């Protein structure tokens, strides 16, 4: 139980990657707080997790909502040791049809949310001289993809923010890293498959195959594989891993 006595906060913790991360950290001894918009989903996930679990509703793109949520967390767990910025959205559209609303929403949830949540914990972590911040970015934070320019821009921002903060915190005992999954077997990707089916007339199998062609292993990444990487970055022995953007994509993108 390498994380016994640690407290972890996971945004977007109600399903998919976030829920898998919550299970992995809890199974390793951490107490976890699950943050998200849907309390029912958060509570359902919490019931399946061992240990002391807290559920807090939040809109990570809203400054006051984030402040209120972390205030609630601190009432129960004064010290936050681990932050996993996992909350995210991905809307697709050709650049010429990308509205300002879509652009701002993609930046708000994916990038500003990471900024706001990190700002709530980093000063105290540096003072305590321990902390682990893991940002769930995407291969879209390392390369470009057509028709998701706002999402790609936001995830590139997450990777840049990760590298900058890692340098600021390097001597404090705090590490900041990003994980960059490829297409992962989550509701978000299932929605993308449904969108491909609707626009192209392809079957579900054909639409899924179109996505996994980017992965040399020819498959979707599993949420548990990302959760295991988070656990590695948070467990003892990973102290020198800092400022990295680590692809989890079967070889689609090489770390650089």
Q: Any overview of this molecule?
A:
There is one protein chain. The protein contains eight helices and seven strands. The chain has 256 residues and is of the alpha/beta class. The chain has a seven-stranded parallel sheet with strand order 3-2-1-4-5-6-7, with helices on both faces. α1 crosses α8, α3 packs parallel to α4 and α4 runs parallel beside α5. The chain is globular. The chain starts with 6 loop residues before the first strand and ends in an 8-residue tail after the last strand. The relative contact order is 0.14. The model has no long low-confidence stretch (mean pLDDT 94).
Output the structural class: alpha/beta
Helical segment count:
8
CATH superfamily membership of the largest domain:
NAD(P)-binding Rossmann-like Domain
User: Could you state the order of secondary-structure elements as H and E?
Assistant: EHEHEHEHEHEHHHE
Through-space gap between termini: 32 Å
Give the strand content.
5-15%
* CATH class category of the largest domain: Alpha Beta
Described by the principal axes of the CA atoms, the overall outline is globular
Average pLDDT confidence is 94
Radius of gyration: 18 Å
What is the correct CATH architecture of the largest domain? 3-Layer(aba) Sandwich
Any low-confidence stretches, pLDDT <50, length ≥5? Answer: none
Biggest β-sheet: count, sense, barrel?
7 strands, parallel
How much helix is in the residues? 40-55%
In spatial order, strands of the major sheet run: 3-2-1-4-5-6-7
Q: Which fold does the CATH topology of the largest domain refer to?
A: Rossmann fold
Quickly count the domains: 2
Strand element count: 7
């Amino acid at each position: 139980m390498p994380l016994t006595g640690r407290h972890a906060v996971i945004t977007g913790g109600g399903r998919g990657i976030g829920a898998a991360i919550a299970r992995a950290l809890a199974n390793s001894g951490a107490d976890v707080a699950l943050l998200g918009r849907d309390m029912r989903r958060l509570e359902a996930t919490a019931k399946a997790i061992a240990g002391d679990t807290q559920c807090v509703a939040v809109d990570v793109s809203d400054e006051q909502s984030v402040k209120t949520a972390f205030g609630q967390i601190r009432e129960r767990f004064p010290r936050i040791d681990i932050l996993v910025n996992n909350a995210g959205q991905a809307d697709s559209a050709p650049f010429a049809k990308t509205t300002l609303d879509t652009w701002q929403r993609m930046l708000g949830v994916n990038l500003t949310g990471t900024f706001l949540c990190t700002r709530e914990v980093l000063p105290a972590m540096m003072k305590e001289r321990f902390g682990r911040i893991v940002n769930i970015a995407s291969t879209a934070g390392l390369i470009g993809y057509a028709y998701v320019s706002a999402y790609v821009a936001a995830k590139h921002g997450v990777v840049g923010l990760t590298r900058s903060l890692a340098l600021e915190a390097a001597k404090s005992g705090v590490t900041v890293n990003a994980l960059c999954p490829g297409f992962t077997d989550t509701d978000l990707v299932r929605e993308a498959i449904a969108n491909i089916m609707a626009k192209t007339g392809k079957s579900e199998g054909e639409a899924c195959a179109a996505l996994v062609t980017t992965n040399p292993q020819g498959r979707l990444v599993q949420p548990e594989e990302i959760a295991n990487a988070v656990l590695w970055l948070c467990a003892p022995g990973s102290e020198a891993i800092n400022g990295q953007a680590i692809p989890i994509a079967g070889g689609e993108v090489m770390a650089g």
